[in-house]
Each structure stands twice: as C-alpha cells, then as structure tokens.
Description:
The protein has 166 residues and is mainly beta. The chain has helices at 96-101, 160-165, and strands at residues 15-17, 20-25, 29-33, 38-41, 53-58, 66-70, 77-81, 110-119, 122-125, 131-134, 139-142, 153-155.
Amino acid sequence: MRISCKCARSLNGPILMGAGMKIHTSRFGTVEIQPDDILFFRAGILGFEECQHWVILADAANSSVAWMQSMQSPEIALPVVSPRRFVPNYQVLLDPLDMDSLHLGSVDKAYVLAVVSRDKDVLTLNLRAPLIINLDRRLGCQVITVDAQPIQYELTALPLTLRRIA
C-alpha cells in the first residue's frame, strides 16, 4: 500500500524533500525518511489508536532496539525489539482474520515486533500483543495472540545501555 504524500500541512507534520521527506520528532529531532518507509496501522496501536502512520527508526546507540515513531504525533515513539532476540522459541499464533487484514499469504511473511516497557530498572516485553507487519504491503496491526503469552515478559541481565534508552 502506498501512502499519499500530501503531508506538508503543518509545522509539526512531515515536510516533503524531493523524493524523501522530513519528519519532526521530540526524541530524534528532524529525521529524513522515504515515503516507502511509512507503515499504515488501520486501527493504530493500543493506547494510540489515533496514530495510524508509523515509521521504524533504528537506534544509533543499540542495534537491538528500534523505535516505532508516530507520523501524527512527534512526541510518540515506542521502543520495539524482535522478540526472538530475547525469547528464541517465541511464536505468535494469529487469528486468520488478522492475517487477512494484513494481506499475508503465509505467517513466514510477517515481521514481528514487541513493545518494550520500563518500570524503574526492569524492562519487559509485551508478548501478548505484538506488532505484526507485512513489509511488502507496508501494513501493520497490533494483535492479541490467541494463545496465553505474557503481557510483561521480564528481560533479565540486560546491558546498562539498553536499560537506559528504553
């Protein structure tokens, strides 16, 4: 799915720059992206339902972490990781309707991310409601898994740099 780039409507919104565009963020300053970098989440993300357009930004300080940056709200950026990096046997069981909404022909085409949360010095992953992305179609959704996964899977023995940024 392609997103129309009629976005230069406000000072806080994206600004078109040739083939690319610049977005203003509170965490990363001004970032240049390509229109094909934009992901569309029809229902938004839990707690941020009004934010339907997102971009994944790499974390320069830690290659384990990326950030889901809202295109609508410069102050909203969620730390995300590949859950398999921390839970090697993690599997997502999806409802067939979720696969249909993402236009996924097979589960192996899905890119899975878990949102990282921090409570004091403890980092957790939400394995119960991962973000599922069809990178070919630039479509994403947050799903509730059909099996019992933890909402707060505690990450232990993390490097100090990861604990500080999340």
